[in-house]
Write a structure and sequence with these properties.
With 126 residues, this protein is mainly beta. It is 8% helix and 55% strand. The longest helix has 6 residues, at 120-125.
Length: 126
């Protein structure tokens, strides 16, 4: 069960000002991007979306997204949440193989005291 599914509205003309964050090592979460243009829902049913995450270290992670009408479902997994800090997410909307629109949003990965299922105290006891 993913507890950190987050809904964000993005207007292609205005961007978004919503602040949100994930916790380090979150896995199986979905970022639901509700896409609008000039304050109106637009159908993306015949399009494809790709998410490109730039992690705090500069590493780039690419994830395919799912689309249902005007919602882009972006998978958030351990590859994305492995590093704490600010993440840049660029979403490309494609018609066939041609990019028709892109937008960038930023979010934070909050540092976890848990390292892949072990807590810091257990690590220090070794």
């Amino acid at each position: 069960m993913a507890l950190r599914n987050i809904n964000v509205t993005v207007d292609l003309k205005r961007g978004t000002s919503q602040k949100f964050k994930y916790k380090q090592f979150d896995n199986g979460c979905i970022l639901n991007l509700f896409i609008r243009q000039n304050k109106r829902d637009i159908s993306l049913s015949n399009y494809k979306a790709v998410a490109n995450f730039k992690l705090p270290s500069g590493k780039i992670i690419e994830e395919d997204c799912t689309i249902n009408y005007n919602v882009i479902f972006v998978p958030i997994n351990k590859k994305v949440t492995n590093e704490d800090g600010k993440v840049s997410l660029e979403v490309q909307i494609l018609n066939s193989k041609q990019v028709v629109s892109t937008f960038t949003i930023f979010f934070d990965i909050e540092k976890s005291i848990v390292w892949e299922g072990e807590n810091e105290r257990n690590k220090l006891d070794d």
